[in-house]
Amino acid sequence: MAWLYLLRLVVKNVGRNRLRTGLTMVGIAVAIISYGMLRTIVQSWYAGAEQSSAARLITRNDSSLAFPLPVSYAGDLRKIDGVSAVTWANWFGGIYIDEKHFFPQFAVDADTYFTVYPEYKISPEALEVFRHERRGAIVGAKIAKEYGWKVGDQIPLKGTIYPGTWNFTISGIYTGADDKIDETQFIFHWDYLNETVKAVLPSQADNVGLFVVNLLHASDSALVSAAIDSSFHNSLAATHTETQKAFQLGFVAMVDTILVAIQTVAYVVILIIMAVMANTMAMTARERTREYATLKALGFSPAFVMALIAGESVAIALIGGVLGILITFPLASAFHAATGHLFAIFEVTPLTVLLQLAAALFVGVMSAIAPAWHTSRLRIVDGLRAVS
How many helices (H) and strands (E) does the chain have? Predict the structure, then answer.
């Protein structure tokens, strides 16, 4: 039953210097929290792309997303082989209350948008009301809950791209097919936007920001993309078509350097706390040199002494790691609330928790290697002569 004796000694050793052990655990917890939060931030940037439909294409202006496309392209897109449905959307960019209350706003084709995006769940009755209400809007359940909106409420948005105050009436509230779907969008009639633009700036009317194309078969995405772009190659507004995932990753690429820096910082934090932990275990082993020499003199093997040191190191690291993991969840929720709608999806995944636990275990094992090896090779005579 040597392992039971070993376990008892490990438990006692962990509690011997409570201040130092407690501070070490706190340091590990902070490192694990930092790692988990930074990894969650990176994952959240990629969340939109990961949830993209493989059977959905995005067609935009070949020059830039800032340049529009004629709405008349929709009819030509529907004629291309392999296309099952087409809709369009236009970014609005209005302000609700002030700039801090940000949420995405899109002017869409009311008749086709929710057909192309079946993951946005809305009752047929609400959708029917929306289609017949010129200033109607469909809003995500998340922002409806945040602002206390309900069907029939009047919502004013101050235009930035399109000047003036725009008033909308909530016709319905959509929910996501699962918890990964963005429920923060504000969706209204493109026709309403276009009518106003036509009256004020006729040259900018009858244009859309992008087209969304659903495919009959996801495997045909490359062929259909090429067919679309070749159809408009010689037009005044050439197109660039890509999968929805590629489109989303294009936005992520704009901050790719920042994401790499965040990931680097996450690993650096782990390495720093590992150095601190290694120093703590080295101090502990040095203070107990005579004790370890006594154990060896009593017949305990060098492997037992190594296991004693490693067990204490791993125990401290895992306790600190579990503490950090438990704190990560409420901290992530608070961070998500504080950042508003910057991240449509922000959750600590099971994989992140597993990696946090693995990181804590890694720190514990690596920190024990040097002092355990040194102590195992220590001669009994030299150990008994040591002065603590």
Answer: 14, 12
Q: What is the DSSP string of 49-103?
A: HHT--TTEEEEEESS-TTS-EETTHHHHHHTSTTEEEEEEEEE---BSSSTTS--
Residue 249 maps to a domain:
no
| Cα–chain center distance at 291 | 49
Q: What is the pLDDT of residue 183?
A: 87
Query: DSSP characters for 167-186?
Result: EEEEEEEEEESSTTS----E
- Indicate if 19 and 105 belong to the same structural domain: no
Greatest extent of the chain over all pairs of C-alpha atoms, in Å:
97
Closest CA relative to residue 263, chosen from 203, 352, 140, 337: 352
Q: Among candidates 164, 143, 198, which has minimal Cα distance to 94? A: 164
Give CA angle at 54 (50, 58), nearest 5°: 95
Query: Mean pLDDT lowest for which of 147-151, 277-281, 285-289?
Result: 285-289
271 falls within a domain: yes
Close Cβ partners of 190 (under 8 Å, ≥ 6 residues apart): 88, 89, 90, 107, 108, 109, 110, 208
Give the pLDDT of residue 255: 61
Per-residue tokens: 237:
């507004």
Judge whether 373 and 274 are in contact, CB under 8 Å: no
Percentage with pLDDT > 90 across the chain: 44
Q: Is a pLDDT exceeding 60 seen at residue 333?
A: yes
Nearest-angstrom CA–CA distance, 298 and 287:
19
Q: Is 344 found in the same domain as 202?
A: no
What's residue 345's pLDDT?
Answer: 75
**Total domain count, the chain:** 2
Q: Is residue 264 part of a domain?
A: yes
Looking at the structure, do residues 297 and 164 belong to the same domain, yes or no?
no
Mutual angle of helices 256-287 and 302-338, in 10-degree steps: 140
Task: List phi, psi (to 5°) of 339.
Answer: -90, 5
For the purposes of burial, counting CB atoms within 10 Å of the CB of 164, is it exposed (0-12), middle (13-18) or buried (19 or more)?
A: exposed
More confident residue, 287 or 33: 33
Residue 152 has pLDDT above 70, yes or no: yes
218, containing H or E segment: none
Residue 233 in domain: yes
Q: Quick one: 226 and 274 in the same domain? A: no
The residue segments making up the domain with residue 204 are: 63-237
